[in-house]
## 1
Amino acid sequence: MKQPIIERLEQIEKNYYVKILFACEAGSRAWGLNSDSSDYDVRFIYIHPPEVYLSIDPIGTKNNRDVIDVQEHVELDIHGWEITKALRLLRKSNPSLLEWLHSPIVYYINSSSTERMKRLLPKILNQKACMIHYVNMAKNNLQQLQRKNPEIKTVINIIRPILIAKWLEKTNQFPPMDFIQLCETLVTDGEIQNELHTLIHQKVTTNYNHHVNHFDKLLRYAESELIHLEATIQQLKNPTGKQVTEKLNRLFRNALDEFEM
């Protein structure tokens, strides 16, 4: 499927007259949890020609959209952010963008910009904000859970953000996207490990919305970890406001200098 995705990205460049700097897989395939029926969730960062930025209407205003969405069929969802939007979100430690940059499946690299973004992460990463995001994600999914007949999707979307928050707590670094690696690194209890192995097996061999049973220990683990993580967040100080805007401005200008169609 990689070549058809690359060809579609090249067609987007022609149709929208943009340059795609970076494109990756997001979602279950990036997490190592894809089944035969899993969709392809392609995410990308793009840049316009330099003259587009010399406008009295900035990108993201009027008709100058800062996103591109393409969904031609059910299996392939393509979504991209314009580079200045992406850099502003990077400044805020936007978790979705950080996941893109850490995806193990990269379809397209056409600039040095993404490597420069990664090098800035230690100066930019807001541990507290990211932990709050993932803890809230887990809590919201836990509230939606049908205890007697939960869906695989919901259980995964409880456990995965908890493990990401735990990694952030322990390392103050953004984690790898591989779900199995997170489980093996962070979970030491044998019974919880067994339920995780069962969950992973059911995820990769059945439909994402398949209903599952017998994850009581795993869900109690989730509740306990959320209590611990919320207590940790309360103790974290708010960041002092690292001055990275000029570095991001230079990164943007370098990307413009590299622009070629």
Note: DSSP finds eleven helices and five strands in the chain.
## 2
Amino acid sequence: EGPARTEESISAIISDENADLFVTETNNQIIGFVHVLTRQAPPVPIMVSRRYAVLENLAIREGYRRLGVGTSLLKRAHQWALSRKVSQIESNVWEFNEEAITFYRKHGYTTTRRWISRRLPQLIPITPVQRTALRMPQGPWLPNHPHNPD
């Protein structure tokens, strides 16, 4: 479930020409939605610049899962992405969300990278220490090294 989306956030998605929001209703009640958008990877030396789609959010109300609602919304997101001339769609899934991982795998998604994190301990006061100069042996990384062209 989670917090409800505000009217402002939904309006922002709808007015964004690079994003869309599709919903499925039954009995005048939203039972599922998908938020999809396009992104342009920046042209940086370590990455190939590319335009791709992101499945930002796909949620189905409890009680309506495994009835084809998610599949229908996912197909709609794929159609939207193809209409934007992108050839790849990506999404993030929490590691513990085995139901979602199974769903995406069933629809041809594969893991292409892992986003890892670590909780840091609370800050501990550090006693200031005197800085000392560190003498290092010469090497190719130092200006006076004979193999350095400078």
Note: The beta strands are 19-26, 29-40, 51-60, 89-90.
